[in-house]
Amino acid sequence: HQGQWTAQEDTRRDVDRISTMPASQSVQVFGKKKTATACAFAKQGRGLIKVNGQPIELIEPESLRLKAFEPVLILGQDKFSNLDIRIRVKGGGMTAQIYAIRAAIAKAIVAYHAKYVDESSKNELRKTLMAYDRNLLVSDPRRCEPKKYGGRSARTRFQKSYR
């Protein structure tokens, strides 16, 4: 059956393709702040951290760059030396995105240790991060309150006059 195609052959080809893929150790986690979402993909590597394809050293605004570095500075560079973290971030404003990025980095390292290293090192990392700032691992539930009628914002009312 030269020209004919069968589903069985196709699935066999797919199975071959799947089995030849290298099994790299990786985890995927999300960091959120307001409406900004940062999706971090951590895998074995040589210590690269990239945000939307560019190195984390080039994050704008410059004044908040240190905020994005916090998880790395708290835990020490050596913990990240064998990890590559790629982060995609969208939504929200500049500040919210940076807070989402730092949450994603912190969660990624904890998740990676939980999955591929050991439980005690994961608990140690968690404890260190929690002691510094709880928002690194637990997302902040505060959201913007919707505007109501009869005023110019969520709470303020228009001025009332009697004459």
Q: Tell me the distance between the termini.
A: 93 Å
Specify the helix fraction band. 25-40%
Give the neighbour order of strands across the main sheet. Answer: 1-2-5-3-4
Whole-angstrom Rg: 23 Å
Mean pLDDT over the full residue set:
86
- Number of distinct beta strands: 5
- Catalogue the unreliable spans: 15-19
Question: SSE order in H/E notation?
Answer: HEEEEHEHH
Please characterize this protein's 3D structure.
- This protein is of the alpha+beta class.
- It has helices at residues 7-20, 65-75, 94-116, 119-132; strands spanning 26-33, 36-44, 49-51, 54-55, 83-90.
- The protein has a five-stranded mixed sheet with strand order 1-2-5-3-4.
- Residues 15-19 have low confidence and may be disordered.
In brief, what are we looking at here?
By secondary structure, the protein is of the alpha+beta class. Helices cover 38% and strands 18% of the residues.
